[in-house]
Amino acid sequence: MTDDQRDQLPDDLNPSGFVGAYLFPDNSRRRWPGVMYLVIAAVCVLVVAVAEDSAVVNRGWLVAAVLLAAVGVLSITSGWRMTVDEKQALVAAQGAVEFGVGHASAQQVWRGLRSRPTWRVLCYSAEEPPLQRGLVLVDAVDGRIVERLVEENDETE
Length: 157
What we know:
single chain, alpha+beta, 2 domains, 4-stranded antiparallel sheet, Nuclear Transport Factor 2, Chain: A
C-alpha cells in the first residue's frame, strides 16, 4: 500500500463536516426489502412451475421461495413507523422519573422478534453531583413508557 492509497470516510459519513440536528432513519424503510424478498420468492415459484422438468430446477427452488417469503413477511411486519423522536422520548422520560432531570441521553434500540423501535433514555438528577439516576424505555411507535428504573446514583464516590 502506497502513501497515496488511504482509507477514508465518504463525505456524507464524515462527522467533522456535520452541521445540524441528526435525524434517525425511520424503521418503515424495512418494508422495501420485504417487498423485494416476496417478489423474488414469487419468481422462484414461477420458475418451478414453468421449468419443473429442467435439470437445473429442483426442490431447492421451493425451499428458497418459502424462506424468502418468510423473511419478506417478517421484514414488512417489522417496518414500524416511528412517531416519537429522541426529543419527545427525553420529555416522556422526564415525566416518568420522580426527580428533576439534569443530564440525559437517548439511544435507539429494538425490542422483540418484530424489532419494535424503542428509545432507551438514561437520565441523571439535576444536583451536582447527581444523587439519582433513571433508565426509561419509551416506545418509539406510540410514546408509551415500556419500563422504568430509578435508583440512587452510586457513581458519586
